[in-house]
Each structure stands twice: as C-alpha cells, then as structure tokens.
Amino acid sequence: MCGAPEQTQVLPPGTDLSKQTVLTGTVRSAEEPLGGAYVRLLDGTGEFTAEVVSSASGQFRFFAAPGTWTIRALHRSGIGETTVTADAPGLYTVAVTVS
After folding, report:
1. What residues contact residue 40 under an 8 Å CB cut-off, 6+ apart?
2. How far apart are CA 34 and CA 28, in angstroms?
3. Which pLDDT does position 11 carry in this prediction?
4. How high is the pLDDT of residue 1?
5. String of b and e for 64-88 (b: at least 16 CB within 10 Å)?
6. Among 55, 19, 22, which Cα is nearest to 36's?
7. Which of 90, 95, 88 is nearest to 39 (CA)?
8. What is the pLDDT along the chain (99 residues), one digit of tens a residue?
9. What is the pLDDT of residue 6?
10. Is the separation of the CB atoms in 1 and 52 below 8 Å?
11. Among 48, 53, 58, 94, which residue's Cβ finds the most Cβ atoms within 10 Å?
C-alpha cells in the first residue's frame, strides 16, 4: 500500500504556489469520481516518478517541478491518463478518466 498522505484538494498549510508546482485532480469513471485508483506521475520521458492512491472522492495531488508530466490512473475497472504541462510554479488541475 502507498504511504502517501490522504489525498484532498485542500493544499497543506504553508504551500507557496509562487514557488511550488502542484498537480491535482480527480480520477473519474464516466462522470463518477473513482476512489482507490493508483495514480502515477510519469516524467516527460515516461519514467515513473511517484504514486498515490486516490481518495474516496477520486482526488489526488503531486508536488512536482515545472515540466511536462503524464498522470496515469490504474483501477480494476480500467486505465486512464492525461498529460499536463506545468510551465511555471502554480496549481494545475486535471481530470483523469478511467475506462
């Protein structure tokens, strides 16, 4: 099991979005949030960087460096992925649909 903290859309106290890059979002199956998905962060070359488990409401969050990232969700009901380009520090929100 993943040792990451509980995933929510609320950022931890002290998060400075002028200095930190945060990738956040929701895993969905059709239109419904999907909890319990393994959400992986892959760098621009496709290398595995980190993994969290989506919350019961499908939420996930990664702290990353600026760049192009792939977010892949794996669940017993399917796989989904999306790409996000974080040009600078800030908050980047995406949705990943599993099918």
Report:
1. 48, 49, 50, 51, 71, 72, 73, 74
2. 5
3. 78
4. 47
5. beeeebbbbbbbeeeebeeebebee
6. 55
7. 95
8. 455 555 556 778 888 888 999 999 999 998 899 999 999 999 999 999 999 999 999 999 999 999 999 999 999 999 999 999 999 999 999 999 999
9. 54
10. no
11. 58
Residue type present at position 85: T
Overall size of the chain counted in residues? 99
Instruction: Count CA within 13 A, CB hemisphere, residue 79.
Output: 4
Sorted by where each starts, the structural domains of the chain and their CATH numbers stand as 21-97 (2.60.40.10)
Task: Decide: helix, strand or coil at residue 41.
Answer: strand
Amino acid at 38: Y
